[in-house]
Design goal:
heterotetramer, A: alpha/beta, Elongation Factor Tu (Ef-tu), domain 3, Rossmann fold, seven-stranded mixed sheet, 7 helices, 21% helix, globular, B: alpha/beta, eight-stranded parallel barrel, 14 strands, 32% helix, 19% strand, binds flavin-adenine dinucleotide, binds flavin mononucleotide, binds FE2/S2 (inorganic) cluster
């Protein structure tokens, strides 16, 4: 597997501290499925050394979109990229979501966790009933709301401070919409605490989480990614995930 | 250079670039890259399966990483029965990295795998010696010699001893490995390191980690230079090799082969690129055989 | 925190951040910065003047540098007569780093400088012991204890022993220093390293060099954590400290003071910034005294 | 001493592999004298770690000019700077040239070594007779020729391949113009071999070299810069130089 080069088409801060980056790569645009992630070199040279994993947020013809927070040095460099700059990408990586048919699918995004759910929603909505729940600390942290609306799905919001939608955790909305025994599916992406909350509270639906924890290679060769598996041992979630059934891991 | 191959105890490696243990799984993930290398060293195998350390297992710092994988591996039996058949079909020289927590585990692993289609063994002496207060085997020359000798008795294939430089002069342990009958020494394994969270607690799930990557290179090169001058068996250089020039430096300092570790985490074809780069540099230097390059740092001319 | 000062053998340092030896000359170049620090450690002083190594003396690698200055210094006499008067006027605590090539040189330096206005001494045991085949004093716990005891006998001011971790467990030498009467140990000095030219020859004029900078931090932090757990005297953390967070990490791991080295080569006010940053972090943590921070990595709560 | 920030005004490749960068900093523009150098951080973060020393090539009102080759990683980053980007500068450093009066001064620049001679020529020409000799491998490597011409000085050229001016080392031109006993001064900047050649061949004039060797701090605190002094010991040339009398060092 060789790393790929692709030109940045646009990059802008879309919410406080959150960037949306479009780049062009026909091959990747064709290959990327919901659940795939890309591993990006933050800059040339040996520092920062490791690639940064980011989920594919959306695909439009030959272009792909990444939406990311910039908590550290590597993503800060990605945030500085301008149109015409080149990305150095390894991917697609991970195991894509197996897309269901004729189901009710609840999507739950916390903060920037909304990002990978957009592509998933897009690919699910024709053959499933999709409801999306987005949460954030305050209204300004809710992202991709317009994009989800354009998909003509049911979209619910939750904020910790009640500034938009339900006041409280976004998981409340999911729990309220779970109807046991109806074959519902839940896909969630967000902080570990949110996933743990869902794992505890969602009964009677198959719930999956997008895990965004530390990785080394992202390609399965280093064993540096480790989610504790129920019953012992660890899941190398860059290979078996990053989307993992919540009842299979210890949270 | 017409012939790029290197031999260890009669086993021929097509070129001197190997994938380092723990950074290339079993060579199966990127088979085309494995096929272009002199060989691959497997993830460390222990007698019993090991789940490894809790996460996080990796920490990044300027120029390097710390890892605390904790030797996660399927154990001897599953490795032999489930992994090896696939590995054997790779068409690449496969050196099995074996690790133990008691001296007897090393020769047991070597003995049981000696019937299998593997090219040789690398003894990873960096694990704590459980019976002896936890210092690593590799820190005690007497233990190194003893473990090497016992492994030597169990196989006729190449036995490589991977040395640690943690608070230990690898010259002493390299001599011990040589005395014990090793065919080569790998210099060096990771260096101890600690990273903390903002709350002052260890960042890594395994508490301490092992340093690797470009930040390690000057130290690793220093060790190779010293060890190569002190022993008669080949040295396999390892530590921070990212490109052909790095590999050339290790050969100049006296290594007969090199291993590429951390670089493969960043670029899956890093080891193959190291080989391409090294070959080009040697061609530009007009080298006619490895002897023109290996050890030239200390050669009078 | 109301009181930021730290004491060693009764001598008060206004804050725990010192400039490291060899990276701050004699503190005279940037006096305003020196004045904001807990103290400065001088360039290593030897009995005889030393010209140092031929150039190049510095090599850069990802995350760090190698240096081979070779202890260039004016020697005891000129240091005392020409440099010290100016240094004494600095209004900062000045620790004199003394280095020797025979055991007797350390106590001689300490003895002769004990009449001068200096805050204390740091014994740099990393030089090769000329009479004994060239291994550094700091690699032999018995020599460390002996040299420390002899220095101790010559002064009532703080005696700090600067440890090497080169192929040596600093826990053993720290215990030896403690037994010899040291008031603190500095952990750690540079780590051996080698860099080569394209032609395979050593890049540095002094052949080998000493690694420093951020690439060294995880290893240095690991050493501090171990040494602090093993001895009762204060530890001075050193290695790759670039900002307040780095300093906080060393204190968490058990250091009572820290030294800033390589960072000052890049930013002349780096050490002062380390102190400002550390102070802010400790305020944000709500620490009321250094005891809240120092050693919290191992504290149960 | 605090590092300074200054915006890049222009940056362009002016000869193969040689960049000319203008930046604005009124304070530095006032303070910099011929012989001063600046120590520049190639980028933020810890890698490359060390600053890169570059001579002040020219000053025009509030602006300063640097002209540099990009042999390695750090200067490659400097070469990529665009107008508006910020430089992180330590300086002025080193000991400026003590400007003579009413003398004949020969300036000798090899390759990019012409850079610091431009400011020197500008400051010398009103009160001295200045002759400039520039050398390079081939014509395309001769830089700043227009700038020197505008100063209305005698300018001579030498190239190894004879593609412009004298065929042979630029030092030939200097040697030809030295008249012992007339109080001439020579200032030279270029490869070490060129300085050594001058040191050997210039008799009867006071010859100085701009030394561009490895440094650590550039500020005098690390002893990592070392030119062997005649008679033993080393010159810390970031302090005592970077312009050093050629007969005081061992070349
Ligand atoms: C499969 C996967 C998909 C992801 N998708 C997205 C996404 O679409 N949008 C988004 O904003 N974030 C996403 N993340 C998280 C993102 O990778 C981290 O925020 C990012 O790596 C932090 O890098 P940094 O340089 O800012 O931080 P630094 O602190 O400089 O990073 C240091 C090291 O830690 C790693 N790291 C730090 N935080 C995380 C984290 N939360 N998860 C994984 N590694 C981390 C870095 O990759 C790097 O190796 C994803 C993570 C994974 C594993
Ligand atoms: C006082 C002074 C003034 C200089 N002025 C100029 C100038 O005006 N124009 C110009 O083109 N060059 C000049 N140089 C040389 C310039 O500093 C180097 O070309 C540059 O540092 C190389 O950095 P790099 O990142 O390209 O190389 P790298 O190989 O990445 O550098 C690695 C390390 O070596 C140092 N280094 C490498 N080559 C040199 C060198 N020749 N001299 C000093 N340090 C070196 C770097 O600074 C860095 O610390 C000057 C040097 C000095 C000392
Ligand atoms: C994630 C990781 C896992 C490793 N696992 C092993 C192992 O199982 N056995 C072993 O002998 N060395 C192991 N190592 C050490 C490497 O083989 C190599 O010696 C070290 O990383 C230095 O080389 P590098 O700088 O090229 O990575 C591991 C290194 C890393 C980074
Ligand atoms: C250029 C240079 C010169 C040094 N000289 C000395 C010295 O004379 N005596 C000494 O004990 N340590 C010396 N050191 C080591 C430093 O004091 C310090 O221990 C080491 O650099 C690690 O810290 P750092 O990573 O903050 O630089 C020197 C380091 C450098 C970089
Ligand atoms: S990150 Fe390397 S195996 Fe998953
Ligand atoms: S470069 Fe540090 S003293 Fe000259």
């Amino acid at each position: 597997m060789k790393s790929l080069r692709a030109p940045v088409v646009a990059n802008a801060e879309v919410a406080p501290g959150i960037w949306s980056l479009w780049f062009e790569h026909p091959g990747l645009a064709r290959a990327c499925r919901p659940g795939h992630f890309l591993n990006l070199k933050p800059g040339p040279g040996p520092d920062p050394l490791l690639r940064r994993p980011l989920s594919v947020c959306d695909v439009e013809r030959d272009r792909l979109r990444l939406v990311f927070r910039a908590p550290g040095r590597g993503t800060a460099l990605l945030a500085q990229l301008r149109p015409g700059d080149e990305l150095d990408i390894l991917g697609p990586l991970g195991r894509p979501v197996r897309l269901p048919k004729r189901r009710t699918v609840l999507l739950c995004g916390g903060g920037v966790g909304a990002a990978p759910l957009l592509l998933l929603a897009r690919r699910l909505r024709d053959e499933n009933r999709v409801k999306v729940f987005l949460g954030a600390r305050a209204a300004e942290g809710l992202i991709l709301t317009r994009e989800f609306s354009r998909l003509r799905l049911e979209v619910g919001f939750a904020t910790d401070d009640g500034s938009h939608g339900h006041r409280g955790p976004v998981t409340d909305l999911v729990v309220k919409n779970v109807h046991p025994g109806t074959g519902q599916l839940v896909y969630a992406c967000g902080p570990l605490a949110m996933l743990a909350d869902l794992a505890r509270r969602v009964k009677g639906a198959e719930a999956w989480g997008f895990f965004e924890e530390r990785m080394g290679c992202g390609t399965g060769i280093c064993y540096c990614c480790a989610l504790p598996r129920k019953g012992g041992g660890y899941t190398r979630f860059c290979q078996e995930g990053p989307v993992v059934r919540l009842d299979e891991v210890e949270l | 250079m017409k012939n790029h191959s290197v031999r260890l105890r009669g086993v021929e490696f097509a070129n001197p670039v190997l994938a380092a243990s723990g950074t290339w799984e079993f060579g199966l993930r990127f088979k085309a890259v494995s096929a272009r290398l002199g060989g691959v060293v497997t993830k460390g195998i222990t007698v019993e399966p090991r789940a490894g350390n809790p996460g996080p297992r990796i920490f990044e710092f300027p120029g390097g990483i710390l890892n605390s994988v904790g030797l996660e591996n399927p154990g001897l039996e599953r490795f032999r029965d489930e992994v090896l058949p696939e590995v054997a079909a790779l068409g690449t020289r496969v050196i099995v990295n074996v690790a133990g927590f008691e001296p007897g585990e090393f020769d047991r692993l070597v003995g049981e795998l000696d019937r299998e289609p593997v090219a040789g063994f690398e003894l990873n002496l960096s694990c704590p010696n459980v019976g002896h207060g936890g210092a690593a085997f590799g820190q005690d020359p007497k233990l190194v010699e003893d473990i090497t000798r016992r492994a030597r008795a169990r196989t006729d294939r190449p036995v490589v001893v991977k040395l640690t430089a943690n608070f230990t002069d690898p010259v002493a342990t390299a001599r011990a490995a040589e005395a014990g009958g090793a065919d080569a020494v790998t210099v060096i394994n990771t260096l101890f390191g600690l990273a903390l969270n903002a709350n002052g607690r260890p960042f890594l799930g395994g508490r301490n980690g092992g340093m690797s990557g470009p930040a390690l290179k000057p130290f690793a090169l220093y060790c190779v230079d010293r060890v190569a001058a002190a022993v008669g068996i080949p040295v396999i250089g390892c530590g921070g090799i990212m490109d052909g020039r790095d590999a050339l430096d290790f050969l100049s300092a006296g290594a007969a082969l090199v291993q590429v570790g951390t670089a493969s985490l960043v670029e899956p074809d890093a080891a193959a690129r190291v080989w391409t780069g090294l070959r080009r540099l040697c061609r530009d230097l007009g080298a006619e055989s490895w002897a023109d390059i290996v050890g030239r740092t200390r050669r009078e001319d």
